[in-house]
Amino acid sequence: xxxxxxxxxxxxxxxxxxxxxxxxxxxxxxxxxxxxxxxxxxxxxxxxxxxxxxxxxxxxxxxxxxxxxxxxxxxxxxxxxxxxxxxxxxxxxxxxxxxxxxxxxxxxxxxxxxxxxxxxxxxxxxxxxxxxxxxxxxxxxxxxxxxxxxxxxxxxxxxxxxxxxxxxxxxxxxxxxxxxxxxxxxxxxxxxxxxxxxxxxxxxxxxxxxxxxxxxxxxxxxxxxxxxxxxxxxxxxxxxxxxxxxxxxxxxxxxxxxxxxxxxxxxxxxxxxxxxxxxxxxxxxxxxxxxxxxxxxxxxxxxxxxxxxxxxxxxxxxxxxxxxxxxxxxxxxxxxxxxxxxxxxxxxxxxxxxxxxxxxxxxxxxxxxxxxxxxxxxxxxxxxxxxxxxxxxxxxxxxxxxxxxxxxxxxxxxxxxxxxxxxxxxxxxxxxxxxxxxxxxxxxxxxxxxxxxxxxxxxxxxxxxxxxxxxxxxxxxxxxxxxxxxxxxxxxxxxxxxxxxxxxxxxxxx
Amino acid sequence: xxxxxxxxxxxxxxxxxxxxxxxxxxxxxxxxxxxxxxxxxxxxxxxxxxxxxxxxxxxxxxxxxxxxxxxxxxxxxxxxxxxxxxxxxxxxxxxxxxxxxxxxxxxxxxxxxxxxxxxxxxxxxxxxxxxxxxxxxxxxxxxxxxxxxxxxxxxxxxxxxxxxxxxxxxxxxxxxxxxxxxxxxxxxxxxxxxxxxxxxxxxxxxxxxxxxxxxxxxxxxxxxxxxxxxxxxxxxxxxxxxxxxxxxxxxxxxxxxxxxxxxxxxxxxxxxxxxxxxxxxxxxxxxxxxxxxxxxxxxxxxxxxxxxxxxxxxxxxxxxxxxxxxxxxxxxxxxxxxxxxxxxxxxxxxxxxxxxxxxxxxxxxxxxxxxxxxxxxxxxxxxxxxxxxxxxxxxxxxxxxxxxxxxxxxxxxxxxxxxxxxxxxxxxxxxxxxxxxxxxxxxxxxxxxxxxxxxxxxxxxxxxxxxxxxxxxxxxxxxxxxxxxxxxxxxxxxxxxxxxxxxxxxxxxxxxxxxxxxxxxxxxxxxxxxxxxxxxxxxxxxxxxxxxxxxxxxxxxxxxxxxxxxxxxxxxxxxxxxxxxxxxxxxxxxxxxxxxxxxxxxxxxxxxxxxxxxxxxxxxxxxxxxxxxxxxxxxxxxxxxxxxxxxxxxxxxxxxxxxxxxxxxxxxxxxxxxxxxxxxxxxxxxxxxxxxxxxxxxxxxxxxxxxxxxxxxxxxxxxxxxxxxxxxxxxxxxxxxxxxxxxxxxxxxxxxxxxxxxxxxxxxxxxxxxxxxxxxxxxxxxxxxxxxxxxxxxxxxxxxxxxxxxxxxxxxxxxxxxxxxxxxxxxxxxxxxxxxxxxxxxxxxxxxxxxxxxxxxxxxxxxxxxxxxxxxxxxxxxxxxxxxxxxxxxxxxxxxxxxxxxxxxxxxxxxxxxxxxxxxxxxxxxxxxxxxxxxxxxxxxxxxxxxxxxxxxxxxxxxxxxxxxxxxxxxxxxxxxxxxxxxxxxxxxxxxxxxxxxxxxxxxxxxxxxxxxxxxxxxxxxxxxxxxxxxxxxxxxxxxxxxxxxxxxxxxxxxxxxxxxxxxxxxxxxxxxxxxxxxxx
Lengths: 510, 1081
Hints:
The complex is a heterodimer. By secondary structure, chain A is mainly alpha-helical. In chain A, 47% of the residues lie in helices and 4% in strands. Chain A has helices spanning 2-16, 40-52, 58-66, 79-85, 89-92, 95-117, 122-126, 128-153, 168-171, 178-195, 210-225, 234-247, 249-252, 290-294, 304-307, 329-333, 393-406, 410-422, 434-449, 455-461, 465-471, 473-478, 495-500; strands at 31-32, 74-75, 274-278, 315-316, 338-340, 347-349, 388-392. Chain A has a two-stranded antiparallel sheet. Chain A is globular, with a radius of gyration of 26 Å. By secondary structure, chain B is mainly beta. In chain B, the strands form 14 sheets. Chain B has a 22-stranded antiparallel beta barrel. At the A-B interface, α1, β1, α2, α6 and α9 of A face α9, β24, β25, β26 and β27 of B. β1 of chain A pairs antiparallel with β30 (679-686) of chain B, so a sheet runs across the interface.
């Protein structure tokens, strides 16, 4: 009897082992790529997967440090944050460059997967118009990623297809010329502009729409008309892309809010002035850190950590205030002049003292806090729900004005500049002198867009990086013995990547 | 006495023993005269079943379970008795007047009849053709071990054990015969009582946690033997999982006989002294101020002071002028303490031939040397051996293991809040205690939140738990005495959890209003095997064959989640409902299975020539779309030359055996399940509408052509024993070639991915292993056995596909963010890579230092075309510019680096190989002395020729402005008043100090360590006890090394092929003093 049981057991084992050559794997926690792109839900998930590449706080903080802090007015009381303003990031925290590189290319790879696969799917054949909207969204995201990367690094490797093999010729691509990157960006954005919907039905705000298509195309044309490409013919193309957007807000479902401060209000996220933003939320660690870093300590709008007495690490030099007219809403609402400390209810008032005053309290070399990233409700320092606004509708007016002015038609610029300034009670500009207007427009961009992570890109396309370096107030104070170096005209290609790809070259001087 | 006699005798002995065991009650008719007595080992343990023979007759008997015998002598025959026992030296005694004759037997040097466990069977040592090292329980007794992996250290040639740090339960790994894979895991296959164990059982760690030992929950006191299979002849029967070698662990089994209880109780205290001796307040302030004054030479100190540029300017209480500074807090002293380790072990065993049982209970509690660290382990193991009917035997093992490791994160491998690292960083001016409340201080004097290492250690509750059931049962059916059929089932189920609760006092917890990280890994491994063993002798031919099949199925489920925003932070994990958000939740289930067929054929001719061939046909589901099936064969020949006539007469030679083996094994460790499938991962993302949405995206670049990596090994072995086995030597020489290296190759991120699984490249590994053992003395009252094992092994990357080199993983995300190793074809694995420091910048090297011009002086250089240019006299990280140069990069006293590409600028292209973490050789030297009732053992272990990358130097040894520094650095550093060119002591560490490793961090890591010194005294004649022993053990007592870090046995970045030998604020290894008591009754 026992022997019989044993034999049965043994036969079962051997049966288990009958060597069929197929070893099938059962997948539990991911989806099989083979049968995806079958319906709109899957398309949406794949496209949101591109947004997901920018998830969490890294992209936002690194862009702030590497882009906004190169503004000559950017300052910080904390040495490790002042590095960025002092042009020491490549020495001190090179990792910030590689993180931006990683995120940008991750988004590009995901976009490439969508752009390649959607047209091959049955869904595309049956719902072409709808499917094209998704392709347009993916192409816009790809263009946006390439645009940010090329503005930082110049020539960069160009991938238009997902990487699907270990072929070294594909893995180890060298850099492509900046011109080629812009060609792809423009091709993508022309498609996006024509195919993106005015709004999305299945989700709320936060995905790029037709307005984003026109806006970014205009921005790319304007940028390529400046340094380094200097394709001045693109000023007209920028006008062509931006004018319909500026003139027809309703058609694009956008709006210039009358109350300037409300554009940035935590209660008004996803408002119609926002062209594109990374949507930070409390849930799942998908939040922002900037409210904590940019607000004073023990303030009620900096979130939990500022309640513990920290915060206020990045701010603005008081000289920035001198750029505004006295009645400008942005001067009144854009900065924190006083607040009550939540731990002892003391009223803390900002004192416009110079950089080198001692002490660590509010004032002095700390600079003054801006108000664009206020969010007191967060329960962790990196989970603020304040969105990272990348592009705002007002910039369409500023860009359009600049394009007209640079294109030799200052008079055409004035109405658009007026629209942008009227709502903040700034005076009307009447000059039609191109050079004078250029200065005004450049200052207007700082007044309107400080801390919105575009400063370095403006500095570069205007080719004033050396001037800005020499005039950088915190750099002068912290690092007076360090002179300008031509290498600062482009950011360093991440060392880690150079180590992995022998075909990758470093920017000059780094 | 001749050898022939010995063999003849052994034969009788075996047969008799067999009889005795079966018919234990066999009695003798009393005849005169009758001699009785007791046979024991020299240690006093009774030897049941020992044989007593009246010399020259066939009159003999065996001892009972208490070692007692009674023998009636035949009249008219010799009055000499011969006492013998398997594994012990025969002893002859003349019968005198007394009728009582007690005898102590001395253990045989090394028994060739010793049983060696091999895959799917066992063999006598003399029949083994492969390279197998054995460690027996006896080799381990009296030593101090905290885990099963440590027991192997230094005990066997060819086996290198390296631990990440001295942390209780910390990561530790074994490399058998060097490194044979470039993947993350170079761990061997562990097989416990025939069933493979998994080592990928650990739950995900919280951010920045270092690895832990997956075998930490096993009880080292349960070990009966460990066999380490090294060459292909031994390992190929494990086929595709044997690429890194195989470790067979056998636990103690139930013994037939009356119930025996043995216990041992041990208590240890451990201390590590002051591993990092840091600057006190005044020095710290002076050092910080000097960094500023050095970079502003044109401005007077008073002007700098007036301009608010001096950090320690006397304006606030924690920013005093150096001369007024108090010494401040010594945080290192606050986090280290004396550790205590207690363990208790009890084993009960007994039974009869039909059913014998063993129950073992173990408890261990190890309080580590950093405050709040504690490792606890409880083990319960039950073994039963049943005989069912005449032909069927069942041997079952069940063990329940529980380990709880309360960890303190020490080395901030990438993060900032590691306790040791924080203690390095914190300003000594921060008070340990808040003067008002007496609590540990959370704020600096000016209200800034600080990272207090004591708070980080005590207010974080970091617990890793491992609960594991390991069950195996072996049913053996004997068709005949020649043919056995074994069916084996093994089930290994466990849950490993990590919970990290940071309350609001810690930095991380404060930032999240209380933070709880939970991770869980559930692993179920099921193994079923069925095989036949055939063992028969036909005249001069002996055949030993095994054939069978095996199936293993591994299902793993992992999840992790994060809770934040706790209303109250005092209940932690016990009241999750206090948390208002849960985030970052992920769960993943995977399955992987293997199907295998295997065989071994062992043929011996004339007891001299043995041929062994093995083969395994393996299928691994990981490669479902690639090539899942592989065949792994091996063959070996051995020749027992000492049995040949021409050698048999050389009396000095007792064994001379030549072995040669050749074979292939595989490994699939390098990649996980589904690596050949295209899949999309799932995650989520918020939009500006403040909703959360699902996002999907490609999870990897799949590689449909993936398959095994295969190692082919040629092994030549020689065993030679001399002087009746008193001197035993063995030498093995091997060469192993591993092809198709399986690797998640790091690829440029421009592809959108970090890595791709590939098969590419080839490793060549050659080595020589020498084992020498000598019984210097072998007397009843005094013996000394000395054993030395010595290993030299070298692994070369022969080629790596189209890649010019292989980068190691990045050293630390917040700092270096760059690989610390690079491996080139033709060179050893994991060589350190970085800048070579060639000197320090001197004031005279600068254009006009006094005036604040930090450009490097230039000189005229004429190139080939006769063009004259001005060039810097040496290259720096910041090239000369039109202005004043970069003080941060060009200050006097900063490092000068070798400009490898000669372009005048130091950047990452100028990195080069700067050190080699692989030892030239390593050894273990074990001595066992017995003097009367004292046993003394001394174990020395060492490694020679390996370098360590001491990253502590980057942070506290070369003037990083982000941390405190060592006294040694402070006293020797470059200052205006102490100008020198000693690269170890720069003025501060400049822009590359914590971004690119350099040659100053490389130190010789060679060491020789007195690992263990123990003294045991066996008390005799104690009532109720058959044996009482008192043991005193000292561990890590003496270390001889030039390494300046706290401990040369270190590898904080783990022990993969490409990241070993890096020291990053490790948990140092203590000196341990242990008092133990062994009781048997």
